[in-house]
Amino acid sequence: MKEENAKNNPVSVGVISLGCDKNRVDSENLLAYLANAGYRITGTAAEADVIIINTCAFTKDAKEEAVAGILEAAAEKKSRGAKVIVTGCLPERYRSEILEGFPEADAAIGINDYEGIDGIIRSCFKGERPAVFSDKAAEASGRILTTPPHYAYLKISDGCDNRCTFCAIPNIRGKYRSRSIESLAAETEGLVLEYGVKELILVAQDTTRYGSDLYGEPSLERLVERLSQTGVEWIRILYAYPEMLDDKLIEYLASNPTVVKYLDVPLQHASNGVLKRMGRRNDKQYAAALIKKLKSKGFAVRTTFITGFPGETEEDFAELLAFINESEIDYAGFFSYSKEEGTPAARLKEQVPARIKAARLKQLQAAGSAVMERRAKAYVGKTLTVIYEGVDFDRGVFYGRSRYQAPEIDSVVYFTADNETVPEVGCFYEVAITGTDGLDLTGVLRKEI
Ligand code: SF4
Question: In testing the pocket of ligand 1, which one of 165, 205, 213, 238 has its CB within 8 Å of the most ligand atoms?
Answer without folding.
Answer: 205
